[in-house]
């Protein structure tokens, strides 16, 4: 049986000489990993950059839970992201968060569409996107079903509560203009991650947050 579906790349693992296991958020399967054969050239590997949005034919198997993905194409070029060092670094962070927070096999309704919308939003923003990852984390909590209010974050954000409250009450455009330095952004992102950890009962050790801190210092 085969099915065409959309895939958002979260992570890849090398498999043998020229194959990959691509860990994805998929339109039809939820959080799922797929085997991709015949990967090795740089042109092929560029398909699997973090948060790339792909279309693929999935070949299901009764003998293995690891289905095969083939005839893979990029749905969106994401040139606004790939040509920008800062946005690329954000995709590393966001993909790592999704990879660690959304459990393999989970199928949260609407999560794929919500992620796709946010990736395209990041791709199209021209200026004032330094706070994007903080807003993304807060909206991810909503997308996962926690629907926090500002007071729910209080035990996690401590002295940064007034800033967190602003993010919760302002529009997206207004929240992008909240003046923060790199250290403060880093601290608030870590605190929201702790909130997400608490509710998902998981450990979210996101290494790429350090890169964002250095770039947006």
List the uncertain runs: none
Q: How would you sum up the global shape?
A: globular
Biggest sheet strand line-up: 3-2-1-4-5
**Gyration radius, in Å:** 18 Å
General description of the model:
This protein has a 5-stranded antiparallel beta sheet with strand order 3-2-1-4-5. Helices cover about 45% and strands about 20% of the residues. About 30% of the residues are buried. It has about 220 residues and is an alpha+beta fold. α3 (about 85-100) runs antiparallel to α10, α5 packs parallel to α9 and α9 (about 180-200) runs antiparallel to α10. The protein contains 10 helices and 5 strands, in the order βββαββααααααααα. It folds into 2 domains: about 1-75, Nucleic acid-binding proteins (OB fold (Dihydrolipoamide Acetyltransferase, E2P), Beta Barrel), CATH 2.40.50.140; about 80-215, no CATH class.
Summary keywords:
217 residues; alpha+beta; OB fold (Dihydrolipoamide Acetyltransferase, E2P); 2 domains; 5 strands
Compact summary:
By secondary structure, the protein is an alpha+beta fold. It is built from ten helices and five strands, in the order βββαββααααααααα.
Describe the protein's topology:
Layout: E1 2-15, E2 19-26, E3 30-36, H1 42-45, E4 53-59, E5 68-74, H2 79-82, H3 85-101, H4 111-124, H5 132-143, H6 150-157, H7 161-169, H8 172-175, H9 182-200, H10 209-215
Antiparallel strand pairs: 1-2, 1-4, 2-3, 4-5
Helix pairs in contact: 3-10, 5-9, 6-7, 9-10
